[in-house]
Amino acid sequence: MPRRARLSGGKNTHGAHPMAMPLAVLVSGGGSNLQSILDKIDAGCIDAEVRVVVSNKADAYGLERAKKRGIPPWCRPHTEFASRLAFDQEMVRVIGEHGITAGTGAVVLAGFMRMLTPEFLRAFPAAVVNIHPALLPSFPGTHGAADAAKYGVRLAGCSVHFVDEIMDHGPVIIQAAVPALPGEGGDALAARILKLEHSIYPQAVAWLAAGRLAIEGRHVRIAGAAPASCGDAALPYLASPGLEQEFLPVP
Length: 251
Ligand code: GRF
Fold this sequence. Notes:
Layout: E1 3-4, E2 21-27, H1 32-42, E3 48-55, H2 61-68, E4 73-75, H3 84-97, E5 106-109, H4 118-123, E6 128-132, H5 144-151, E7 155-162, E8 172-179, H6 186-209, E9 213-216, E10 219-222, E11 229-232, E12 235-240
Parallel strand pairs: 2-3, 2-5, 3-4, 5-6
Antiparallel strand pairs: 1-9, 6-7, 7-8, 8-12, 9-10, 11-12
Bound molecules: 5-O-phosphono-beta-D-ribofuranosylamine.
5-O-phosphono-beta-D-ribofuranosylamine binds next to helix 1, strand 6 and helix 6.
C-alpha cells in the first residue's frame, strides 16, 4: 500500500484557506528557503500555512523572517537539554501546540542542522521533508555543494526528500541539476544551487500540501507531474519531475 503523504488541513489562523495544510518550518540559519516557501504561499501557489518557525540557534535569521511575517518563532538552544531526545520531545510538543500532529500537517526542514531522532520522526509519519544541496545519494552531510565542487563533478544540484532515520537518505521527491563550472569554488556553486533550491522546495511543498505525493518504498509517486523541465543558457538546469509554471526560476 502506498503511504499517502497528504494529511488533513486544520484551523486557520492567518487568514489562510480553511483547508490549508499547517506547516512547521525548522531552521538553523538564514532561512532563504523558508522565505521562498512563504513567498509562494503569499502568491497563492501553495495551499499551506506556516504556523510556527522553530530553531535551535538564537541568531538564526529565519526567526526574523518569521517575526516579520507574523509567524510565531520558537527557539531554544539544543545545548540546554539533557539529551537529543529531550530536545526533540520539546519540539514535538511545541509543533503539536500549533496544530501539526501525526496525520495533520507537515514539518519542513529548511537548513535545520541537526539529525532528528526516530521518536521525532514517528510523531509525524511520512510528513517530514528536507532539502539538501547535492544530487543525493552523492555528497550527503553538512557541506554537500562544497564537497561536490571539491570532487570535480560536472553536474551538481539539489534534492528534496522525505526524511528517514539516516542522514540525507529518505525517498526523493524532486531533484534539480546544474552544471558545475571548471574552476568554480564551493561557495559560487552553492549560490547557484541555492537559486534552484528556491524553486524546487516550494514546488515540493505545494505537491505535499495538495496531497499529490505518495511514498511507495524508496519511490515517491507524484500525481500529475511532468517528466522534466529545463532552463536555458542564462540559467541552465534540469529539474525532474518538471517544475510547474509558477515555480520556474527567474534568471
Ligand atoms: C541550503 O543550502 C539547504 O540546502 C541546506 O542548508 C541551506 C539552508 O539555507 N540544507 P537557508 O537557511 O534556507 O538560506
